[in-house]
UniProtKB/TrEMBL annotation:
Transmembrane segments: none
Name under which the protein is recorded: Aspartate/glutamate racemase family protein
InterPro entries given in the database record: Asp/Glu/hydantoin_racemase, Asp/Glu_race, Hydantoin_racemase-like, Iso_Racemase_Enz_sf
Protein family (similarity comment): Belongs to the HyuE racemase family.
A Pfam family of this chain: Asp_Glu_race
Amino acid sequence: MHIRLINPNTSAHMTEAMFQSVRAYAAPGTVLSAVTSAQGPVSIESHFDEAVSVIGVCDEILQGCAEQVDAYILACFGDPGIWAARELTDAPVIGIAQAAFSTAAMLAPRFAVVTSMQRTVIMAHHLLAQYGMASLCCHVGAVDLPVLDLDNGAAVEAIIRHAVQARDQHGAGAIVLGCGGMSHARAEIEAAVEVPVVDGVAAALKLAEMLVMLGLKTGKHGDLAYPLPKTFTGGMSRFSR
């Protein structure tokens, strides 16, 4: 099977870091590829960033359809454009936030999320509500560091501090890493916090493999049916059908 990791931001070094962090989890026979969006923001840290990134995500899904990719990982914790992506293909599209929430919910009665920027905390709450997980999350905290600054020791120490606080003060039995840029440090964080720490990128990979192996595809009855053919204008004309 061929699973494709899509980084909705345009930072190729972040794409490579996530790919290297999870490639060892791929099952024998799984081909894992990774692509960086060709257009959009260098990082996604606001509603506006998310909105702008969706066109790049859709472009990558359509390219993957042409290459007969079997499943996709949407590797941004906001899961930007996930419903649009699911409309465009019957292959499973797994967002790393939904994957992480679902996995953590199977490991502990209540989990906490440690994310990047403080302004994205409310966005995480929106996702929890959207996926029906709000009652299972006891806390959402932020280290208040930009996404592109999460790949150093000081950032990992900050994540650990917030995770320990969530465990001790909020009763979290598991921690969800609220950014794909934290993927590389999952094992180190878990060793320090001593509760399960879930990286959504790795969780999404394993869920994608499971769905493909079971022969399950995105349902095309209802609102995830393929988009109706229509004309798009301006720079969007490539989406005309």
